[in-house]
Structure prediction request, 299 residues.
Amino acid sequence: MRVFLTGATGFIGSRILPELLAAGHQVVGNTRSNAGARQLEEAGAAVHRGDLEDPAALAKGAEDADAVIHTAFDHDFARYAENCDKDRRVIEAIADVLAGSDRPLLITSAVGMGSPGAGQFAREDVLDRDHPMPRIASELAGLAAGECGVSVGVVRLPQVHDPVKQGLISPLIDLAREKRMSVYVGEGGNRWCAAAVEDVARLYVLALERHKPGVRWNAVAEEAIPMRSIAEAIGAGLGVSVSSMSQTEAAAHFGWLAEFAAFDMPASGTVTRERLGWRPHGPMLIENLARMDYLVASV
Prediction:
């Protein structure tokens, strides 16, 4: 297939690209910079210029594609709601290009959108349309496109990690470095799920090659890591104290991260593993946190 890959030079997309090429697919990668274009050409991909700020221009990359994998996202979490709405507009623009065909559109969301209720593990067969997190905008845009006949699938992400980046954990590390303290809320029993970036990249390719309209996949290797364990790993890596704070204290300590820090986000990846034959190999999150160079701030 000729696959249009957004976010092709990003943290996840740059790992998906070689997996697609190794599987025999042609790739058109989206980038907004000259450096990104050189990176794509050196990797063996064709180049499309586009920007999340201009959905129509970005969507032009889908016109001659047999399939689209959309991983591009603005990861400024301090402007999370605004960036999720931006993602909605991009999905709508790409879906307009694919309308009237059976060409797959694989979009990206977050595992929490499949939570059936407080304390329960998110599942692939659940979509909470009223979820309070702004990322629901991406899934609702995909759902609307599917109802209009576009062949949409969803990959839901946990905390995706390597020894350099770990999703929302990276800004937690930077905060702990700044304040010389690694903090969890209450007893630290709220849980986050995770997967190594290389495993996630393989999942996207499997999801594309075995695509069916309306499917959702949870890219979850570790289903429920206690936040206290994450905070302790960060504290050990930075050589700083580890302590608990109340919800009220945490609001001031974490700033924009406060709404995430106490959030319970366990998720199951059982259906995804069974139906796609996806076998995550790791390493595990705590392993990668132990392998980090804590002298370097997150990028």
